[in-house]
Amino acid sequence: MIDDNSGSNGGTDEILTCTNDGEHGSGVPTTSTTQVRNGSITRCHCKASVKLRVNSEGLWEVRQHIIEHNHPLTPPQWQHHHRSERKITEAEGEVIKAMTEAQVAPSVQFRVAAAVAGGDVFVGHTKRDHINFVTRLKTLSIEGGDAATLINLLTSRQAEDPGFFFRVQFDEDRRLCHLFWHDSMMKEDYLLYHDIVIFDTTYRINRYNLICGAFIYPATRHRLCQWHIQQNAISHFRSLKHDRTFQNVFNKCLNGCYSETEFEGTWLKMIKDYGLDDSAWFKRLYNIKTKWCTALNNYESTNHAMGFQASKTTSLTEFFDIFETTVKRWRGEEERKEFNCIRSTPTSVYPLVDLLQHASQVYTLELFRVFEKEFALATGTRAAILPSEDSVLVYRVDSPGAEGSSHHVTFDCDNNLIECTCRKFQVMGMLCSHIIRVLHIHSVPEIPPTYILRRWSKFSKADVWNRLLPNDMRRSAANDAINWRRSMLTNLNNLVTKCQNMVAARAIIEKICATANDEVQTLFRNLHMDDDQTRDEVQDGAILDHVRCTTKGMSQRKKKECR
């Protein structure tokens, strides 16, 4: 601590005092409504200090030195915990900002920083400092208002992507109450894969307790989220909680049955084998099976599919960033798989007969593996022809020793139409092992075109990629700054690593960095670049945030304080 005092001779005294000088709470006004917080006292009137003054020659000289402290001194190995030793530099702040934008948790960020620095001692700040810095970053990002900042983000995205669309709705107080958006690729995906749409209202994702839904339409049917069923089921397993066999059977009932007959047989066997006849929870779950059984409907919940890292403290702007990051991750994975499909053809452990050969040419790599598995199952089935009329043939196909595996396959030879009672094609759009068995019996060389869905084919999105190429090129041009930054960070990191063990080399780097920093700052001033431009734009809006919701129960912070 430094105090400025005018000396008797007109000079200036600089007094460096101990950090434990003073009195706890001094200078802080208190009222009857001030909440008293529990804490520890570090100030204990320690008078240790050093008094300095500039002499006639312009040099600092020590005028007084009080050595004695009235408290234990900090051991050298703990010096880095002092506030004076803790600082987040501008460069470190940029790295933290980048990791925050990438949805990396603050605690994970600090562990990465500690690993790079060689330990917590050498990071330069504590984990609490790191978390506080991230909190300030998030606060600054919505300084002009959460809703207004989000709308500015959507507007900027619309300027980048001509196909980006969004609409907002406000209440009578100009508070944001409804928001809808999609980009050009989302629209193309829906036009291509719009056979089913799920509106998931079970996941509340932010501080306003608002519901997140991908789409909503008038004609909807309510479904239960399997992810929530799996989470709740654990508390009802009791002694079966650690029985892996039981859990496998239960999971098969949830999402491993392809027909209602198979589900009924598996469920009844599970209830009988594990003595669950008197369980009210399992009875209630069975009574609402149409809302969760994949043999009757098949979907994945939004929060399980997206893996949101959101909570009740998440702002709308943060949620939009999380959503965008998730979509980018999906699309990056999709592009990688598209690339592999275009440049490669799958092999098989089975002889590539005509049917398998054709499947390898039309299906994606992953879907070919699904078809290959069904083909393998077909080799273990037996088929018996049943009495039929005209050119329509009916087969009973089953697997020896597998209870409830019998299904009827109807094959119209003249029109090349085929159907199975397991209805796997109607559910997944893939031929089942029973149909493959019948096709193989009739030596059908190729999968009938009617049963090759475009969504599963190799080139399902070829037209989409070509149509959206101009938008991608525009975004690539906008990402030049990111590519330059990545390249420069790599080069500078290599240079600093090379010079770290040589004092003379470090001096050269420090001099160059200082000069470059001065020149860049001068350039920014000349160009009148205002870092607060975005916040100024937000301030102009009169859009208010949704009323913040206070949920039931005690927060995690309060729970920790009560322990």
Automatic annotation (TrEMBL):
Keyword annotations from UniProtKB, A to Z: Metal-binding, Zinc, Zinc-finger
Span-the-membrane segments of this chain are none
PROSITE patterns registered for this protein in UniProt: ZF_SWIM
Record domain SWIM-type: where? 407-443
UniProt-listed Pfam families: FAR1 (PF03101), SWIM (PF04434)
Q: Which domain of life is it from?
A: Eukaryota
- Which residue stretches belong to region Disordered? 1-35
A GO molecular-function term, please?
zinc ion binding
Q: What PANTHER family does the entry give?
A: OS01G0519700 PROTEIN, PROTEIN FAR1-RELATED SEQUENCE 5-LIKE
Return the protein name: SWIM-type domain-containing protein
Organism annotation:
Saponaria officinalis (Common soapwort)
